[in-house]
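Exercise 3.2. Students should predict the tertiary structure of the chain below and write it as structure tokens, then compare their answer with the key that follows.

Predict this chain's 3D structure.
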Amino acid sequence: MSETGTRTTDPGRRRPARERLLAAAARRFYADGVTATGIDTITTEAGVAKMSLYNNFSSKSDLVRAYLDARHEEWIALYTSRLEQAQNPRDGVLAAFDAYADHAAFAYERGFRGCGLLNAAAELPAGDEGRSVVRRHKEQVERLIAGHLEELLPERPEDVRTMAEHLSFLLEGAMARAGLEGDGSRLRHARAMAAALLDRL
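Answer key:
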């Protein structure tokens, strides 16, 4: 599932309502924001009746959480694809940067606006389960980076923790700036910086 703004059509039969609703929500939440996007907008774009939405999701909040879960899974797929090309733990670390750059390269309807997970979290109130979904995603990214660093620095656990946090901050900062600037160049710069740091270990 991606918020590319391009509507995929199934030549044989229409996709299930849940899938169409999630795709429509992904486009609208990313382009317009969670708060600004109403249920009617999503059902109209998905081409389903409002009752169909409530047959698949208990509430708009439930739909938002499903969107966040799907976006997390989409990133994991991008990361996994990049990891399959990795030759060593250094490449494994950089696969996380490449996965974010791949996301930035999607053909978004109204342009790249940064991390869709963080954008959504910024609109959700403290304590909302959706914010917990986003937090778990970011923590998993840092753990993945740490796992590769453990292979590079097997006898230096403190350095692994510090460097994993450092690189995750670099990645998140680059993603925030890339979103503000509307392109992925900051992510490419951050990857180069991360590679230089890894080469000095």
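Discussion points: Residues 157-181 form the longest helix (25 residues). The two ends are 37 Å apart (CA to CA).
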